[in-house]
Amino acid sequence: MSSSPTSSSSSDLSLPPALAGFGDVRLRVDVILGRGTMTLRACLGLQRGSVVRLSQSAGQDLFVLVNDVPVARGEVVIIDDSVSLRLTEFRQKTATEALA
């Protein structure tokens, strides 16, 4: 599942002067429901109504990737008729990333 979410607070975010010119750059955001494996035979046999088993447990947080980089985890929420994601945890920087 891919999306281009707009947070209600994103327009209120003030960027450091060095990043001010990049505030409107669009990034691809992917929310990963889960992953699984199947044989080629099973894949070729998929049809409408087929169920694909995933490794993710029911109720477990989903993964959020920005330009293929894992940045957060979150839980599904329903707002009106729309599916959204409430962020519950942000990825901590590694020591190497913090020094860069």
From TrEMBL:
One of its GO terms (biological process) is bacterial-type flagellum-dependent cell motility. One of its GO terms (molecular function) is cytoskeletal motor activity. Residues 24-90 form the Flagellar motor switch protein FliN-like C-terminal domain. It is a peripheral membrane protein. It is found in: Cell membrane. InterPro entries: FliN-like_C (IPR001543), FliN/MopA/SpaO (IPR051469), FliN_T3SS_HrcQb (IPR001172), SpoA-like_sf (IPR036429). The keyword Transmembrane helix does not apply. Pfam families: FliMN_C. Keywords: Cell membrane, Cell projection, Chemotaxis, Cilium, Flagellar rotation, Flagellum, Membrane. SUPFAM superfamilies: Surface presentation of antigens (SPOA). GO terms for cellular component: bacterial-type flagellum basal body; plasma membrane. The keyword Membrane applies. PANTHER family: FLAGELLAR MOTOR SWITCH PROTEIN FLIN (PTHR43484:SF1), PTHR43484. Belongs to the FliN/MopA/SpaO family. This is Flagellar motor switch protein FliN.
